[in-house]
Structures are given as C-alpha cells and as structure tokens.
Amino acid sequence: MVDNIQIVDALKAVLTDLTVEQISEKLEAPKSSDLGDVAFPTFTLAKIMHKAPQQIAADIVATIDQSGFEKVVATGPYINFFLDKEATSNKVLKTVFDLESAYGDNLDGQGTKITIDMSSPNIAKPMSMGHLRSTVIGNALANITAKNGYEPVKINHLGDWGTQFGKLIYAYKTWGSEQEVKSDPIATLLKYYVEFHEKAKEDESLNDEGRAWFKKLEDGDREAHELWQWFRAESLKEFSEIYDRLDIDFDSFNGEAFYNDKMEKVIDILEEKNLLVASQGAQIVDLSDINQNLTPAMIKRSDGATLYMTRDLAAAIYRKEKYNFAKSLYVVGGEQREHFVQMKAVLSLMGFEWANDIEHIAFGLITFNGKKMSTRKGDVVLLKDVLDDAHELALKQIQEKNPSLDNKDLVAEQVGAGAVVFHDLMNDRTNNFDFNLEEVVRFEGDTGPYVQYTNARAKSILRKSSIQLTSEQLNLSDAQTWDIITILNNFPSTIQRAWQQREASIIAKYSLNLSRAFNKYYANSKILVEDNQLNARLVLVKSVSIVLTECLRLLGVKAPEEM
Ligand code: ARG
C-alpha cells in the first residue's frame, strides 16, 4: 500500500462509489520507477463496472483532474501517476524541516490509553531472549502508539507468583544457603530450581512438598512470604540492570502477586453467572460453547490454589477499571496463544464487552546459533552476555573505522545494544529467527548499525557546512534525490501502518530503505558543492537525519552523532 492524499482525492472525484479507504488500499508502487510513482490497478473494478480493466483505466485517465501531477497515464489495466517532482520535493522537505521530530505525528488516538503488557519475566529465573523480545517489541509498540496519538501504559506483569515459588522455597530450605544466594542471586536460585526438577524425577513426593509451600505462601505464612520477598527483590535488581542498559522503563511493575486480593471478585462473578464447573476437584470454565476446540480454563486447583489464568483475569479487569483502555495488548510469545484465547473467552462469558479490545501480540521463537533455550534445563543464553558481546564487537569495528572517536565506549554500547534491539525488530514479529551476533552487529547490510551509521554520516555532512539552512526553494527534481523524497513522503503513512498492523518491523524496514537510498545518493553525487541547490540538498540531508533519528527512537535504538 502506498498512500498519497493527492492521488486518493483525484481518484475519489471520479470514483464516487468507492470510499477513501478502498481507494488507498489499492494503491501500489509500480513495478519500475519509469512507470511512475504510484499505480492504481483497475482489475477489481471490472466486475462492478461491467467493463474491461483496460477500458476503465483509459476512461478514468480521460476524466481525472491532472493538475498537480507531472502526468497521469493508463498503462494497460493500471493508472500510473507521475508526481510533480519539484512541487512534491518542496512540500515534503519543507514539512520535515518545519516539523522536525513531529513529522509523521498522527492524532488519531486522541489521548486514549493503550495498555501494553510487556517483558514480564519470571522472578528467580534469568531473563531469557524471549523476554527480551517482549521487552523490545512492547517498548517499540508503546512508542508507536504514542506517535499515533494514544497514551501507552507499559505494564511489567512480573511472574512473581505460582507453584514454582513453593518449589523454590522448599529447595532453598532443604539444601540452599543464604551465602550462596547472596553471592549470585538469580543463577543460584535457578540452580536450586533445576536441582529440584532433577530430584523430583526420582522422588515424586517433592512435588507435593513444593505445592504445600506454595499453599503456605498463598495463605500468608510469614516465613514463606519473607523468602518470596527476598527472591523477588534480588531478581528485580538484576532485571533493572538490563532495563537500564536498554533504556526502557515501565509505568507499572504490578506482577501476578499484585492480584492476590483481587481474585475473589473474579470467582464471585464466575459463580454468579454459573460459569464455574467442578472437574476432578478443580474449578473450571467450560469454553466449548464458544469454540469446540477450546480446552476449559482452569480457575482453581483441587487444593484451592489459584492459577496463572485466574491472575490474568483479575489483571484484565483491574486494567479496564484503572485505565479504561481503548486496547489492551499482551506482548507474549506465540506458545501462549491458547491461554489468551481462553482468557478472552472467559471474559466474554462474564459479560465484559471490552474483551474484544484485548489483543495477544504474539511473536516467534528466537534461537541462538541454532539452539533453542529452556530455563528448566538451565541452558539459557544470558541477555547480559549477549549485550556484553555485542558491545565488544561494536567497539572492535569503531576502533577500525574511526580510531580517533572521543567517547568510543559509550558509542560501542549504543551500537551494540542497538544492533541487538534492531535485529529483533526488523523481522515480522511472528517469524522465528536465529540470532548470530557477528551478523547482527555488522555496519553493512540489514542491521541497526547500518542505519545508525547512515544517520551519523548525514550529520557529519551537515557539520561540514556552515550555511544557515532555510525552508525556501526546496525543489529538487533529479532522479537521485527523487527516491529519497518519495520515501520521506511515505513516512506518515508508514507510522500509521505500523500501528494498524502492530508491527515495529514496518518502521525498521522503512529505515533500512531510506538508508539505502541515501547511501546510494551519497556515493554518486557531490552534496557540498556551492551552487544554487546547496541549501535544498542540505535540507534533504537534514530531513534524512531527522527521519532516521525518529525511526531509531521509535524502535528504542540510540542514534549516535558520530561513530
Ligand atoms: N511471566 C510469563 C512468562 O514468562 C509471561 C507473562 C505474560 N503476561 C501475562 N499477562 N500473562 O511466561
């Protein structure tokens, strides 16, 4: 889809039966640029209009208002629009120059709130690459919602409650040591957890012990509660190091435990609506009426303990009451798809119409050099190590390319972390992908550092010139700059599409496109020559840098001035 208001308006005037949306979704980029800037295919109109597509195209071109275009021509079944290059260049460059980082702002959201459940790692376990995905996708979506006029609320639904804490408390009390935990909290707690599972394989009764300790915790037992609090605080400290490093913050850290006193209400409504059914001692909600293939939602276990689902139901209701969200997003891996389908189904049965505003923003699996990760077996790739390695690789390249750079270490951190984040975001989020650090941190190719480098290059050109830039006479019309101008022109529609599709990758791919077009221009033309278009060319360079910086900001990637 290519958006261009001018084209949609011209078409709308002759195709009165179609809506603006119907017209704009048909617009596409022509197969090659000598066919024009935007194409409108007429195939789908043939049925309605009872005419051959070629004829429709010819008829429309004969009647359409061509003013403001270089030309409008029919090529077989397509109507091809050639934009007036000078007018477009003037308009686009002036808009970016005047608006700067506000270019592309969309006011549609009107300040309504979008809650974003994101990151949500589990206490006493290391943050995995999967949680990293949730963190960076959630953060980018939050920035994108804000750019579209909404107010994002970033919620870290910490996994700080559940039977695993019973297991952990049992393990700690039976073979753990305070000293050991203090020296390296998460790694030690993970070790106990892994050991627990090994031992439980030989001796089934351990699971009962774990369950009993969790029951104690839920019933408010003091010793259990104190241990839990300690594990939680230590874990949060380590998570915060990573959040600080990625410069990502949250509006709420209300994790699962926060809903302990809010679950009675859920149970009450379920009972009132006669939705709870006893099944082998447990309490469930049957969902087969909604969808035959849906397994029932477990609300209470046979020992009365509540579950992940129960806490999520309480959280969903709490969020609606507290934030009155327009949409409630859950950025969670695709393997939890059924959980969210069930959750929405239960909320619908409870009579909450807003259940339809809940969206599971699923994402694919990350593998690391071909290996899958699992915390249960203890073979995890630690995020901290990934960021450290990325930093090293970035530093090496900076030392080669720009040995005299002042703040190498800071820039290496921005490039290393940025590379990891960008790579995560440039793939369609539901794709599975493998992570190879060497490729990710390269300064060339489809990488974050490439976009950062392009932006730094644009900035350095601007530093070399001392002329005062103005927004007058920005009419560039050569083929080299035209590519860049059309991409800049598409930025506002890209912002909207990224939100409509909940896809940060649309912005990452856009930034790569813009970088490629700019580097091609940079390689083939002299920008800094003193002629009457110098100002226009520098405003173009500045516009590229404004838009690239904004793309990187939206993605949660830093934009170093020099690298
Ligand atoms: N802590 C969970 C996990 O690591 C993710 C929580 C996602 N959010 C939610 N509201 N269920 O699997």
UniProtKB/TrEMBL annotation:
Q: Which reaction does it catalyse?
A: tRNA(Arg) + L-arginine + ATP = L-arginyl-tRNA(Arg) + AMP + diphosphate
Question: Which EC class, in a word?
Answer: ligase
Superkingdom field: Bacteria
* The protein's Enzyme Commission number: 6.1.1.19
Motif 'HIGH' region extends across 121-131
Q: Which Gene3D superfamilies match?
A: Arginyl tRNA synthetase N-terminal domain (3.30.1360.70), HUPs (3.40.50.620), Isoleucyl-tRNA Synthetase, Domain 1 (1.10.730.10)
Q: Keywords for this entry?
A: Aminoacyl-tRNA synthetase, ATP-binding, Cytoplasm, Ligase, Nucleotide-binding, Protein biosynthesis
Subcellular location field? Cytoplasm
Which GO CC annotations does the UniProt entry carry?
Answer: cytoplasm
Instruction: Write out the coiled-coil annotation as residue ranges.
Output: none
Q: Which GO terms describe its molecular function?
A: arginine-tRNA ligase activity; ATP binding
Arginyl tRNA synthetase N-terminal domain ranges (all copies): 5-83
Q: Which GO terms describe its biological process?
A: arginyl-tRNA aminoacylation
What range(s) does the DALR anticodon binding domain occupy?
Answer: 451-563
Q: Which family does it belong to?
A: Belongs to the class-I aminoacyl-tRNA synthetase family.
Subunit composition and interactions: Monomer.
Q: What is this protein called?
A: Arginine--tRNA ligase
Instruction: Please name the source species.
Output: Leuconostoc litchii
The coding gene here is: argS
